Amino acid sequence: MIEGVIFDMDGVLIDSEVQYRHHFHEFLKTQNIDLEITTLNFIAGASPRMEDEFVAGLLNISPEKAGRLKDAYFREITIDYAQILKPYVHETLAYLASCHKRIGLASSSKMEMIRRALETCHIDYYFHTIVSGEMFKETKPHPEIYQYTAKEMQVNVEALLAVEDSNYGVQAAKAAGIKVVAVLDPVFRFDVSLADYQVHSLKDVIGIIELEERR
Questions:
Q1: Cβ neighbours, 10 Å, residue 195
Q2: Of 26, 163, 170, 172, which has the fewest CB atoms closer than 10 Å, so is most exposed?
Q3: pLDDT in tens, 53-72
Q4: What predicted TM-score, i.e. pTM, was given to this entire model?
Q5: What architecture is domain 4-15+81-213?
């Protein structure tokens, strides 16, 4: 029986990854680095630390300095999260709440961004547990973020379902012993072959939970 569901945020709840890749590309241009934009596909699902190390390598500076440059640029960017909320988010979360399932969020994004996105989209009240990858030395694909989230939710990993879209996220959840639903991304086309289920829409998660309940 599924007692709880853990969601990734970017690419699952909000359609932010293409937009973020564009802004990241523009940031690099301000540093006189002009790459083919598809070179940056790896940042979808990546941790801020991975991004900082990538920028540091391009600019031959420390990851800490790279992070400061990137953060300063992105502070000037305004994202209307409500406009990029994925379809069926409210319906799926409301269904889970009506079934008394515990709902968690495990995202590699910074907590400040997570809180702003959830509050702007008016879905923050659904979540029992909200966890950011910046809380850990290593985040996805390392399983610690999922192990910690499960513990905070007070649900055994065998009774959890994770909803992810990236290969990093799928790997992290599976390594933590959690069943995974991968929402397929038509742009990034992640390798999510390790997932237990692959779906095209968030609304399909409801059917999977009902299927699991019948087992």
A1: 25
A2: 26
A3: 999 999 999 999 999 999 99
A4: 0.91
A5: 3-Layer(aba) Sandwich (3.40)
